[in-house]
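Two proteins were folded this term; both appear here.
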Amino acid sequence: MLELVRIPFTEVLLPKVQGFDSGDEIWQTEVSDWIKAPREGNGAINDIVNGGLSVWIYATAQGEVVGFGSLGEGMQRWPKSKDPEIPASIIPYMAVDRKFWGQPPGPKDNRYATQIVRNLVAEAQLFKENRTILNLLVYEGNAAAIKLYEYLGLKEYHKPRKDQSNGLLYKRMAVAL
């Protein structure tokens, strides 16, 4: 059940996300910067136009941006790191604005972050005949996100990946579709 309004992200919506704040840590600002970047930048609009990525913003009924999510396709060795690569759906970026963390109050199933991830998984299900897994990377220190992904059935696989640009380790998580 998606209580949020899902809106396909386009360049016209860039002004609506300029105040988006997913936190102060390097892995959080990277995600906020990505959704805010202009077309010439290395961000969501560029990835939509040049990379075939699907991106949505999720808003309240009143139009307040709660978060965003993205879905694309790639190749992944599965299930073991020595296995051949197979087509996979990927969630490159997903975030909830800081003011909506843990919201709305009540059961975890109703929280905005849960709604967004469930919606992205449902979208990936549309491609399960050709892409039998959904995967993502999550910073190993982002305990809340890891807990959410595990709650929704994603499991860690392979060794963590070190980001060469910032030196951070990212867990690889996936679920069979």
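Next, the second protein.
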Amino acid sequence: MADAGGREVVSVGTAVNGLEVAVGESAGEPAPPGAIGGIWVRGASVSAAYEGAGDPRRAGWVDTGDIGFMLEGELHVTGRRKEMLIVRGQNVYAGDVEGLARGVDGIGGRPVLALGVSSPQGEGLVLLATTRERDPDRRRAICDEIRLAVGQTLGVSVTDVVLVRPGELPRTSSGKLARHEGARLYAALRARQGQSL
């Protein structure tokens, strides 16, 4: 399923026998069909350690950490809750932002990390993008192209773009980009340049 300017999301099907799936802020408060919310599961294969957790609306339900929606009885997964950024009250998928930035000439598919960063002006969207480009004019142009691509496609403005050298983005022990470390790197880079967030 896709809409104009959106991305296609395919169904992952229905729940297997013995497992229930709910989508919403909690399992006891399901979202209407087609509305995005947290994905919850319950059933015989779900750990009893989660039973209840003190909230009768959650009895037996486990929050998967994923987000998605139900449509015509089928589940569609749109992402992970921790990958959702809130920018000035608007939900934005970090992966969508990063994909747009990777497509900019001068980034060429290299790693990009999108971050939600608080500032005196509110919640902002910051990108750390890897490039080999050294020319200052071309680097400024790359930053402008990233802002334009994200703004035109997703309708959100980018607060800041910082270009980093290959290998500079933080990674987990398994080699994945470490989003939780990205904010620290951003602060350190801006402090080194004598700029406040």
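The first strand starts at residue 11 and ends at 13. The mean pLDDT is 84. These notes refer to the second protein only.
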